[in-house]
Structure formats: C-alpha cells, structure tokens
Amino acid sequence: MYGLFRERAEAVSARVIRAGGPGEAAGALAGIIEEEKVKKIVAEPSGMVERCVRILEERGVLAEGGQEGGGRPALFFRDLRRQAGDAGLGISEMALAVAETGSLAGDCTSMESRLVSTLPPVHVALVPSSGLVATPGEAIERFYGGGRTPGYLSFISGPSRTADIERVLTIGVHGPERLYIILVDEEGGGGND
Fold it and tell me: What is residue 160's predicted lDDT score, i.e. its pLDDT?
C-alpha cells in the first residue's frame, strides 16, 4: 500500500520520504530544512512533531528559544497566528495517508494545525505509517467511526494548485508551493507495506 500512496502523492507533486522512526524522521526533516534554507519555522504542537523537534534541537539543527542564531532557523510552537505569516516552513502531524488518492487526512479543528499547513510556502507533514489506509472512505470511517467527530476534517492532496486564471496551472497561490510527507514507521516496525 505504501508504494501506491507514494506513486499517487508524487503524481500531485508531493515528495514522500519513509522514515524508520522518529530519529530517522528528524534526519529527513533536517535535510528538508537545509535544502529549503528556511530561517523561520512554525510547528503544530503534537506528539510526533515535538519528538522530532527535540531531536533536532539536541543535534543543534534549530536555534533555541525561538531565536535565529548561528545560521540555524528559529522554531515557534506558540503565537502561531502572528508567527505563521512570514515563516518559511510549517510542520504538522497528519493522522492518515490515503493510498488511493495520495492524500493526507487529519483533524484540523485547531487553528494552529491549519496555519502551519497553509501559510508557509513549504509544508512538512509527519504521518505515522499505522495511519496508511487504502481509500478515502476508510479514512472517513476512521475519523467518524471512533465516536468523536472532528470539527474540521482536512484532506490535503499535494501542494496548493489552481488553474482558474486562463486555465494555466499555478502552484502555491492559495497555500504551500511544496509539500513533503514523511511517513514514520513505529520503532522496530515496518508499517503498512
């Protein structure tokens, strides 16, 4: 199922990376930060994001305390309404990856999750491999079948795109220009192959 997800996600211009755990995911995230040359990062406060950020701080990839320093980017978990507008990269955790469409799905009820995934020009989504599902219907069932209905369910398929101006496809007009998806295997497990 991972192969189909990757094929479909890359067909809509996302870049997909498979990581063997939080340490490997943090390494992939460090590579993206370096490649994109960002100075300011906003991140949704979530378990997986916080683990990866902690590893990056320990490795000296990020400046501490939200201050840019020594060529290292500043990272913000708080005051995202003010910080996200001029950030170069946003990091979020999405619950599911849909193989059939190459889409991500997540409960984006909190404003923070929407800000980090829509305002910066680069969005990095961390997704647990246990969240890999076959179809959009299965994704919806996972959210609505669990007894708790999300206030705002979001599906993301590639970077922002529009063709409403003379039918010319333009990337990044209404959201990020680039989407990186890091599918994170549980420690010692291979997830859904």
Answer: 54
